[in-house]
Automatic annotation (TrEMBL):
Pfam families: DUF5127 (PF17168), GtaA_6_Hairpin (PF16335). GO terms for biological process: carbohydrate metabolic process. It comes from the Eukaryota. One of its GO terms (molecular function) is catalytic activity. Residues 341-689 form the Glutaminase A central domain. Residues 104-335 form the Glutaminase A N-terminal domain. Keywords: Signal. This is Glutaminase GtaA.
């Protein structure tokens, strides 16, 4: 919808709003801009609680934490300058008229002075079948300009980044250099005191940030104080000075790194400019594996000789990369629509970049790994009960990612670096350190992680046909299954993945994970030819599930439902572990339970969904809602998905897609305060598609 300024009396009644933007398919809490890895994760807060509604001109982009990553866009049309991104002082904002997101893109349409239209596309490519491309921690911005009124206009385009991109501490000293390679002009910015594997406020304190564009005639580049560099552009539309050589603190006269592009006369045929932004690090992860503690490089170093070769490949790969991105966007959109309609597409397309943006390809082409950061909840490395809820997107797009995520866990635990008989929770207390838990003092979630590992391994083998993997890891998988035999009928007091809810004994949903895990282990045993084990584990699983029927459900309630924990008959909760029975086709649980839950959930739903369980009246988990939806009746599935999609568009949150929110007011929990955001578990939005 477009509003023009009202003159006269109207202006007294209504503020002068030049334009309002459309948002398609929804206006998410935060709009992904450059979201490609745990350390390249810049967003645009949109919700009213901290954001400006989603208007690119007029507010600074920020890292997923909310810390500003200064990123500016200006455009000069017939000598007058407007802002198209960020909030630089004293420069009028252009008018955003549309925003659209796909799985890989955020696309803004901005009108400048009613003279030209500017389309800015942020593309963070996802290439799950192409590890070389996926390994690159770069992202594109493409700006396309065309006349709006048919007349020709003189246009210059400007963009800069601030040194805020290189550290979480704005008093840190930044250094920089400007150069050209393969007809590409680039700024390199980095922290003077490189701190390998160090973080401040979740930001990487090592590596180099690059901001590049084509080195064509008329393009000039300049570093210097923000106000100085921007006013040079405002005055002249181009730079004539030398680069700033005074290395200093990020917040000391805020050095920025700019490119100004002369577009000349722009009429009815459009002209476009491409920018690349990214982060290069020589080392990515410290890992305690079979050879002891090793440093793992980012995987792109196996494909490219150095930073500049990688940068050049990425920048010149735009046509191919963009084509692949369109294919992926269309696949996800078409499959989502076919699975559950337009509302479902709102969820999957918003989740895709965020899920991949929490992982990083590392190692070498001989031994690649995928490492994952448990973003925001605690920063753990390679948390199994975060990999598990995220896994549907990987099962749907390329199940090898699940193997590459589990490999480091197998390697560490099979080398004897973990003393407990159950499976480890995570590989390190803080990313990027995967130094394990040789003392066994990780956050224990024994049934959760044993079950998750066995179920994910079977799901992977079923999709990939890789039964060697089962042979290779059979002993430890069996060890974990033996733990499930011990503990999953009457689970001892322990945490489930929903650790914010605390410890509890006899959790119905957790017991179900253990039992399906045992049936999955029986299938694994069959696949490796261990028929005695196969028979034993399936016998136990069936014996347990028969008892679980009575222990874990209240059949005399109206309507009947599963309960949170045994003997606590008036409780209820999302029975999301039922999903596993379909994911690995174990068919352990009677069909009556699926029907029962489908009929029950609508009776306890609130405004924005079904609460997680009775320990908190309103809070819920978006990932678990979609797990439930995936195995529910069509009607109940659509109820879950419809409420969640509506929440995405209506919540006042401005944090990247949270998975924990209140079903009454749509906000994150305030008492107790739990502030999940940007977590990879939104890969669980793909739960329906992982079953197909
Ligand atoms: C990782 O370990 C290194 C020491 O090897 C330490 O300096 C760094 O602070 C750790 N990183 C994080 C994020 O805890
Ligand atoms: C590439 O990045 C590494 C790590 O930041 C740095 O040591 C190296 O000097 C960079 N090389 C170039 C050419 O920028
Ligand atoms: C750039 O400008 C130079 C000097 O004006 C000219 O020789 C060259 O051909 C131009 N290159 C292109 C690609 O237009
Ligand atoms: C603008 O360009 C003129 C010459 O064309 C130059 O003298 C002046 O310094 C430039 N102004 C800025 C702010 O760069
Ligand atoms: C079945 O498995 C349990 C648990 O691992 C074990 O104690 C028992 O001996 C097994 N029985 C047979 C017949 O293999
Ligand atoms: C678990 O449930 C069983 C059966 O109701 C009960 O006997 C047992 O005491 C419970 N365990 C705990 C730790 O509460
Ligand atoms: C089942 O739930 C109903 C309603 O909450 C309750 O009255 C009843 O006591 C429960 N059944 C059992 C066996 O506890
Ligand atoms: C029953 O569940 C509630 C949460 O809904 C919990 O606070 C309480 O401790 C449970 N009671 C028992 C006996 O397990």
């Amino acid at each position: 919808m477009l509003f023009t300024c009202l003159s006269g009396l109207g202006a007294l009644l209504l503020p002068c709003v030049t334009a309002q933007s459309t948002f398609t398919p929804a206006r998410p809490p935060s709009l992904p801009l450059a979201v490609k890895s745990p350390y390249l994760s810049t967003w645009f807060p949109a919700g009213s609680d901290g954001g400006n509604g989603g208007y690119l001109p007029g507010q600074w982009p920020s890292f997923w934490t909310g810390q500003t990553t200064g990123w500016t866009g200006l455009i000069r049309v017939d000598g007058k300058t407007f802002t198209w991104m960020g909030a630089p002082a004293n420069i009028e904002a252009a008018s955003q008229v549309a925003y659209e997101y796909t799985s890989t893109r955020s696309i803004f349409t901005i009108h400048v002075d009613d003279k030209v239209s500017l389309t800015v596309t942020f593309l963070s490519p996802l290439t799950p079948d192409d590890l070389k491309r996926q390994s690159l921690t770069f992202s594109y911005v493409r700006a396309e300009v065309v006349s709006l009124d048919g007349a020709e206009h003189e246009v210059q385009l400007y963009t800069d980044i601030s040194a805020e991109w290189v550290s979480g501490d704005v008093s840190a000293i930044a250094k920089w250099e400007y150069g050209k390679v393969d007809d590409i002009a680039y700024h390199r910015v980095y922290k003077q005191d490189q701190w390998e594997f160090g973080e401040v406020n979740d930001r990487a304190e090592w590596g180099s940030v690059y901001y590049a564009t084509d080195a064509v005639n008329g393009t000039t580049s300049l570093s210097g104080a923000d106000t100085h560099v921007r006013s040079a552009f405002v005055d002249n539309g181009t730079f004539e000075e030398a680069q700033d050589a005074n290395f200093r603190a990020i917040n000391d006269n805020w050095p920025v790194f700019a490119h100004a592009v002369e577009l000349g006369s722009v009429g009815s045929s459009s002209t476009s400019t491409l920018f690349t932004i990214g982060l290069c690090q020589d080392s990515a992860i410290q890992f305690l594996g079979k050879d002891g503690l090793v440093v793992l490089p980012p995987l792109w170093k196996s494909y490219f000789a150095d930073n500049l070769t990688a940068l050049s490949f990425f920048h010149k790969d735009f046509e191919t990369s963009s084509g692949l991105a369109y294919e992926l966007d269309n696949k996800i959109a078409d499959d989502s629509r076919a699975a559950a309609g337009e509302d479902y597409l709102i969820l999957t397309t918003l989740a895709a970049r965020q899920a991949f943006g929490a992982v990083q390809l590392v190692g070498t082409t001989d031994t690649p790994y995928v490492f994952l950061k448990e973003i925001s909840s605690n920063g753990n490395t390679q948390t199994i009960d975060v990999i598990y809820p995220a896994s549907p997107i990987f099962f749907y797009l390329n199940s090898e990612f699940v193997k590459l995520l589990l490999d480091p866990h197998f390697e560490n635990q099979e080398a004897g670096h973990y003393p407990n008989k159950w499976a480890m929770h995570d590989l390190g207390a803080h990313y990027p350190n995967a130094t394990g838990h040789t003392d066994g003092a990780d956050e224990a979630m024994p049934i959760e992680e044993c079950g998750n590992n066995i179920i994910m391994v079977l799901a992977y083998a079923q999709r990939s046909g890789n039964t060697d993997y089962l042979h290779q890891h059979y002993p430890i998988l069996k060890q974990w299954a033996e733990y499930l035999v011990e503990d999953s009928l009457y689970p001892a007091e322990q945490l489930s993945t929903d650790d914010f809810a605390g410890h509890l004994a006899n959790q119905t949903n957790l017991a179900l994970k253990g039992m399906i895990g045992l049936e999955a282990m029986s299938r694994i045993a069959t696949l490796v030819g261990e028929s005695g084990d196969a028979q034993n584990f399936t016998d136990i699983a069936h014996k347990y599930i028969d008892q679980w029927m009575e222990l874990g459900n209240n059949f005399s309630a109206d309507p009947p439902h599963s309960i949170l924990n045994y003997g606590n008959a008036s409780t209820h909760g999302l029975l999301y572990n039922l999903y596993n029975d379909k994911l690995v086709s174990t068919n352990l649980v009677p069909a009556s339970i699926y029907t029962q839950q489908s009929l029950y959930y609508p009776t306890v739903k609130e405004t924005y969904g079904v609460p997680l369980d009775t320990r908190n009246r309103f809070w819920t988990k978006a990932d678990w809602e979609v797990f439930c939806a995936a195995v529910a009746s069509e009607e109940t599935r659509d109820l879950f998905i419809g409420d969640l999609a509506r929440w995405v568009g209506e919540t006042t949150e401005s944090r990247p897609f949270t998975d924990l929110y209140m079903t009454d007011d749509g906000r994150h929990p305030v008492d107790p305060w739990v502030d999940f955001k940007a977590r990879p578990v939104v890969g669980g939005m793909f739960a329906l598609l992982a079953l197909q």
